[in-house]
Amino acid sequence: MEELLELKQLLLKGDLKGSLAIVEELEEMGRKSIIKTIRSYAVILLLHLIKQQAEKRTTRSWDVSIRNCVREIQRENKMRKAKGYYLNREELKEILEEAYLNAIDSASLEVAEGRYSPEELETLINREEIFDRALISIMNS
Fold first, then answer.
1. How far from chain centre, in Å, is Cα 88?
2. 9-24 per-position pLDDT tens digit
3. d(CA 22, CA 129)
């Protein structure tokens, strides 16, 4: 990575201010990558929660997918060395809200064999209940 080489040069020169700026940039890049990964799993998690609620049923496949997504979100969110989390509950809720449009679009293709538009499907579900269930699963498992 270009940033690491630049950081090395700045450290060798003794430029701590410039080095810290590069470190902050690297931290932000890492955080964005984690958020992107969590958002991807959140779309799949919400998709299956929407399908469960809209169809008032579940399948083993949906249940496994939900569990896997929850575990992957938890894994991505956990800081390895600092023993904390990258994102708090509110930030996770924001990511779920960002992922929702993609999830409802995908769910509209699958629920009832694709007979509902995303807007029609939204009238069949309780969005907040789905977010709450997703957050509880992520925070408590």
1. 12
2. 878 888 888 888 888 8
3. 41
